[in-house]
Each structure stands twice: as structure tokens, then as C-alpha cells.
Amino acid sequence: MYFLDSTRNRHGSEIYKVKNNFNLPLKKDRQGNYKIKSGERIRVCMTSDFFLEEADSWRDEAWDMMRQRPDVLFFLLTKRAERVETCLPKDWGNGWNNICMNVTAENQRRADERISILLDLPFQYKGVVAAPLLEEIHIEKYLEKGKIDTVTVGGENYSGARPCDYAWVKSLYEQCVQYDVNFNFYETGSHFIKDGKHYHITKELQEIQAAKSGLYHQGSPIVFTYTQVQEYKQMELFNPVLRKKNCLKCSSCHKKNTCSGCSNCGRC
């Protein structure tokens, strides 16, 4: 994130509310239809952290948009699991059906720190994102509780990227297979190690190489529950159109569960 911000002459430490697309989930086209279709997945605040203290003043506005769009799945990811419960809306109850809560777990210390909190949080869907994966981690004691729906793994990119080892990824894959938890290895990262050999992999090939590894597990099915927006006469869920040339090579898109929204199909 710091690297990408620097290419736009910005500094990653600056925290601000975006102006143009903050209300994107509520924007409509000229025909009066939402630009974000029913059944689509919105990744919230992916280049920052939704639970930053600096965002406390405008987070309720974001919750309100999620409340108004129960027909859309919102994907949240945080390093600040300890702040989540105090930042939830008053009408949260046991969790909204259109919110998927995820914590990062780049090493064993952070996995133990954050996943233990995640298990007790009131969310309908929960996931672990081990990206960038920086060492071998063991999370069997959390997976066996049956509260984690998905584990997603990837390496690190851009300036100063640290290596990711195939053995670490395979270990997590085997843990998820053991407890029938959905697992997806979506990209290798810039520096990848396999059988002691170090590979430098360009960004455009990372998902392809991850897909070739075969480290993917379709575990217990996740059935997201969407609620029709009142103004819709009929709710038709969005279904991405996959193209053989690009999407079927991608470790995310061809499995339809963690599409990165590359827009190559022209429909996302």
C-alpha cells in the first residue's frame, strides 16, 4: 500500500475519507439502478483498515450503506481485531447476513492474537487472510471449532517484499483439508521459495503459478444470505462471466469464490 501510494505522489500514513466514491454502494445509473448489482462482493477499505481509530468519525456512514444494501456482500479485513466489537452498530445483534469478517494472520504471533478474538465476534461469516504469509503457521486449534469459513493465502509484493515458502502454504492447505475449511492460495508473491530454490515471479504470473500448485480446497459450502432491497420488484443475483483466456488461469476467478475483480470479463 505504501509503495502504490508513492507512485501516486501520496504517503501511505495519510488517513482520509475518500471524496468521489465513498458512497459507491448507493450510486445509481441513469436508469435508476444501483451500479453495484445484487450479489456482488465489495471489498471494503482494502488499502487501509476499516477499524482504524482515525476512521471512527465516519464509520457509521459506511455501516449505514451496508444496512441499506443487504443484497450485497461486504468483505471486511482488519489487523485490529481487538477494536471490532466496540465499533459495531447498535442494531448489530448476532451479525448481519451480508458481512464477512476477516482478520490477517501473517505469522504465528498474529494468528494467535487475532483469530482467538475473531472466533468470539458476532459475525455470520468469518475468514482468515494469511497474506503476506511470512512464516509457517499452525491454526488447527481454531479451525477445529468450525467457526472459520475460509482461509486465503498469498505472498508479498512490491518494494522490500519478503519471501513466501511453498512449504508454509502447503502446511496451511493440509490443515484446512483436515477440518474441511475452504482454502485458496491466490498468489505467490514476488519472491517464492520451493524445495529450497528461490524464484522471482512477476505480478502477472503470480496467480497463474498459484493456480498451478493445486493448493485449493472446496470445503464446507458457504451459502451467503441476501435480502432483497425494498425498491426492487425482483432480486436477480449477479453472476460473473468467466473467460477462458484469462479467468480460467486465475487462482481466484475460476473458482468463483474469491474473484479479485480484474474486470477482464467486462461484467464485474
TrEMBL record:
Q: Which domain of life is it from?
A: Bacteria
Name of the molecule in the record: Phage protein Gp37/Gp68
Instruction: Please name the source species.
Output: Clostridium polyendosporum
Source taxonomy lineage? Bacteria, Bacillati, Bacillota, Clostridia, Eubacteriales
